[in-house]
Each structure stands twice: as C-alpha cells, then as structure tokens.
Write a structure and sequence with these properties.
Length: 450
C-alpha cells in the first residue's frame, strides 16, 4: 500500500512527510532534473523560486500565526525553515539553498519515502502501471505542465483550469474610513451591500493622472497574454481614455448618497469578499501595479487613504482549479467528481492558496488526512478559527463567482473575540486573542493525532 504524491515542492514534500510519519509508504514523483519548468533551476526538492522570505514571525500577523500552527503540529518544512533562517528583522527568511537541501535530505533519508525522478503526464497512465497505489496527492503547483493540466481537467471534469490573469486588491473593512464612504445598492435595488467611495471631478482627475503614470510590475510574457475584457488591468483600461473608467467600473449612474441624495462624478465600489464581512474587494480593479504604487494610487480614493490590504492586486500566469466546486476542507476531491478507484487530494497553489507557507499548510492537511483515511481513522477538518483551517475553508467553501487565490490573513478567520472578552478596541490585541485561541485549537487537534 502506498500513496503517490505528484510534485516535490513545499506542499508535496510536507504531504509526503506527514504520510510517511504515519507509517505509510510514499512514492514522491518529481520531474527535476529530467525536466525543469521555466522557473526552476535546482535539482533539490522544495526550491524557492521567488523571494526567500516566508513573511512575518509574530502571531499578531496571520502569516506568523500560520507558521506557529504548523510548528505545533510538527511540520517538517517549517522546521527546516527555522534551521535555515537568516537575519530578516521581523520576518522568517531562509538561505534558500540550505533550506531546500535540508528538505531534500530529510525526504531522501525517510525509510517510508521513495523519490521517483520522472515527469508524470497522465494520472490514468500512472495508475495503469501500478498495483500498490491506494491514494494520490496532486501537488504540481501553478506551473503544472499543459499535458498534465489537460489530463486533470478531462479526468475530473473540471469546467476549466484558470490561467490567473489578474486579480483586484482585497481590503480589510475595518481600515476603510466610514466617514467618507456610504453603503448603497445601485438605483436602490436590493440591500445596501456595496461600500461606495464617491469622487468629485477634481478627485477623479487627480486619481486618473496618478493611475496612468504609476509604475507596473514586470510580468513575464505580459504582451502575449490573451486577456479577457473582464480581467483587463484597471491601469490599461484607463489608458484607453479619461472617461473609460467612468463608463466602466467607476460608473456613478444610479448611485446617490442615501442621506444627502448627492450625485458624484465617479464612484469606486467595494464588494464584500467573505461571509464575515471583514474583507472587501475593489470592483473592477484588477491590476499589475507594483504593491507600493497600489497603496499610493488607491490611497487617493476617498475612504481608502489608510486602507490595509489582505491581498494586493496581482497579475501573472498561474494555474489553479475551481476548488470550491471540487474539494472539501481536507483538500480531498469530492466523491461525485472523482471517477477513479482511489481517493485524490490536491495540495499547494494549484488549490488556490497563495504563498509558500500557505501551500505548505495545504500539504500538511492533505497528508494528515490521506494517512488517516488509509489507516481507517476519522479525517480531521481544521476549523476556520485556525489559520490552517481558514485557508482550507476558503478554498472549499467560497461562494462567490470570482474565486481567486488567497494568502493567510485574519479576515478569513472566524472567531468572535468580543463574545469572549467583551469589547476590544485595539486591533493588535484582538488579533492576539484570536491567535491564542487558534493555537489552543491546534493543540487540541494535535492531541487527537497522537
């Protein structure tokens, strides 16, 4: 009996380790060095291809909390990261070569793991050649080869696999200046679900000038990307003409102030992005501006001067599946869309989590649950009161029409601090209470795993 893990990145390595630690044999398929993607160059597993930073360390930061939760659970990747750390202030940064070598050595030395250095182009073909495979974990990342992506799409009936062209920023609701915005629905139809940021003529002109002259991030093959109108970067749209945005995403028609009845020259709308109402996305503001430019330029919009971002807008090639339709909160493919004879889990950025440690956490959850399933134990759902569980909940339960990758943040967590502690005004203290509760929950789960 063995689990086949396809992909030797952070998620695949973490999943393989957790399964092996549970006493189950693992075959970890990694195409390097037989074949390299356009972003990879090292033969080692878990190669970091972008930054060497794994983000913040303190638990008042969601990224720091995520790492602490994985430490509590004995995560292999976070352990190697701690051992490979280099000075980086309040962040955990690693020597990327030392980091990947440590992970490669641990995977290589585990008696229950066999590394198979070959490219997997077809899951069906892989299964036809094997007699010991009892479960598959697909952790091939956002650069999954076209042949395997096409086969995955065909095999599991995905409507489509997305090339992630552009996404709009997501803002923490509590950072929006409520004195400068108003809630309303266009023409007063339906509930007042949108936050509206009204602009007078001179405000719009100032914003427009800053937007069309702002510095964009480099995007590989940007000029060759086949862009849909619905994914057109807002700065590209603006360059078509000064009124293009006013007749598009900033159209003020049908939006009046509910108290003063005032009309405006342009209106930026923010739409609720999660069930709890703690996150709002900027409607029609897909962008490839540099992060610093987004904060500067979008800060000219009334109400967003001090906005804090759960996710900046980004644009790049990125493959991910429609997880809410396909996966449950353990990253397992739902039975009604799985035609093959063994359970299938997904892990990593292909699921719609965004970031190094987020991908690792998905591998940890998938690995633990694949092992439990094969050992005839109950699978474990990490609740949204933890950061690990909040990410799993996001990719499996997102109910909107524009599912997009998400990184760790407190906005997707679900814990009512004030129900326990009463009114808490200080944001940092509220996050600290949320973090403490999350760690307690993780330790409870750890006790069930022992």
């Amino acid at each position: 009996m063995a689990v086949y893990v396809i992909g030797g990145g952070l998620a695949g390595c973490e999943a393989a380790w957790q399964i092996a630690q549970a006493g189950i044999k693992v075959k970890l398929f990694e195409m390097k060095p037989v074949k390299f993607s356009e972003a990879h160059s090292s033969e080692n597993l878990a190669e970091l291809v972008c930054s060497n930073s794994l983000k913040a360390t303190n638990i008042e930061n969601a990224s720091g909390l995520l790492k602490e939760e994985m430490r509590c659970l004995g995560g292999m990747v976070i352990g190697c990261a701690d051992e490979s750390a280099v000075p980086a202030g309040g962040a955990l940064a690693v020597d990327r070569d030392v980091f990947s070598k440590k992970i490669t050595a641990k995977i290589n030395s585990h008696p229950n793991i066999t590394i198979v250095r070959e490219e997997v182009n077809s899951i069906s073909e892989l299964l036809s050649k094997s007699e010991d495979c009892k479960c598959i974990i697909i952790a091939t990342g956002p650069l999954t080869s076209k042949s395997l992506a096409d086969e995955i799409s065909s095999l599991f009936g995905f409507k489509k696999l997305h090339f992630f062209d552009a996404a709009a920023p997501v803002i923490f609701e509590e950072s929006i200046d409520s004195s400068k915005v108003f809630k309303a629905a266009r023409y007063g139809k339906g509930d007042a679900d949108y936050i509206n940021c009204p602009m007078k003529r001179e405000q719009y002109f100032e914003f427009y000038d800053a937007l069309i002259n702002a510095e964009c991030a480099e995007v590989k093959d940007f000029d060759s990307l086949d862009l849909y109108e619905g994914c057109m970067p807002v700065e590209s749209m603006a360059k078509r003409g000064i009124d293009t945005l006013r007749f598009g995403p900033l159209k003020p028609v049908g939006l009046r102030h509910p108290v003063t009845n005032e009309e405006y020259y342009a209106v930026v709308q923010l739409r609720q992005d999660n069930t709890e109402g703690t996150l709002f996305n900027m409607v029609g503001f897909q962008t490839r501006l540099k992060f610093g430019e987004q904060k500067r330029v979008f800060g000219l919009i009334p109400g967003l001067q001090n906005a804090e971002y759960a996710r900046y807008g980004v644009m790049h090639k990125n493959l991910y599946i429609q997880s809410p339709e396909m996966l449950d909160a353990t990253y397992r493919l739902r039975d009604n869309v799985n035609p093959i004879c063994v359970p299938v889990y997904f892990a990593g950025q292909i699921t719609g989590v965004e970031g190094y440690m987020e991908s690792t956490s998905s591998g940890l959850v998938a690995g633990l649950n694949a092992a439990n399933e094969l050992n005839n134990k109950e699978r474990i759902v990490f609740g949204p009161e933890t950061q690990i569980g909040a990410l799993a909940n996001y990719i499996s339960c997102y109910s909107g029409k524009d599912f997009q990758p998400m990184g760790a943040n407190y906005g997707i967590m679900n814990y009512d601090v004030e129900a326990v502690y009463g009114r808490v005004k200080e944001k940092k203290l509220k996050k600290l209470y949320t973090a403490q509760n999350a760690i307690n929950k993780i330790n409870e789960i750890k006790g069930r795993l022992l």
